[in-house]
Amino acid sequence: MAIAPSLVATDLTEEEKQALYDEVSAWKKITDKIAPLVAEEKELRKKLCEKWFKSPREGTNKIVLGFGKELKMTYMITRKLDEAALDAASLAKLIDPELVGQVVKYKPSVSVSGWKELSPDQRSKFKDIITEEPGSPQLKIETPKR
Asked: ∠ at Cα 129 (123, 135), nearest 5°?
């Protein structure tokens, strides 16, 4: 389902259209400039970590550089839960439920689709429970699929 545009440039005055194009152009130039630097930084960071933190432990690792400075590397391990496999193992009684409770956290989260379906009156009941604030906007320039 296509998303309706918020604005169409042809509906703008010439001055507004030029301002939009100038601002998009300035933003695009900056993103094009920093993209290779981000990739280079990532590669250098990876090399530094592999060379100087040979056996990192999960969490913060550090090297004392001297002159009152430390190089700190945060080493993270991403763990993902296969819920279907967990359900199957639990149903087959291969895993003790107490052990599952020790290893798996169930954290309530907001169902965005459910939230959007609420009436203003229903939402008001959650006013002290659910807060909303705008996130950081993301931008990209794309060619629409035809």
From this structure: 85
How far out from the chain centre does Cα 78 lie? 14
Q: Is 98 helix (H, G, I), strand (E, B) or coil?
A: helix
pLDDT in tens, 15-55: 999 999 999 999 999 999 999 999 999 999 999 999 999 99
**Predicted local confidence at residue 146, as pLDDT:** 74
Say what the pLDDT of residue 77 is.
93
Query: H helices of 1-76, where?
Result: 14-52
CA distances from 142 to 28, 34, 78 (A): 12, 19, 31
Query: Which residue positions in the chain have pLDDT lower than 50?
Result: none
Kindly list the domain boundaries of the chain, sorted by start residue: 10-123
- DSSP labels for 68-80? TEEEEEEE-----
Q: What percent of the chain has pLDDT over 70?
A: 99
> What gap in Å lies between CA 31 and CA 26, rounded to an integer?
9
Structure tokens at 125: 């009941």
Of the CA atoms within 13 Å of residue 136, those in its CB half-sphere come to 1
> Which positions ≥6 away from 28 have C-beta within 8 Å?
141
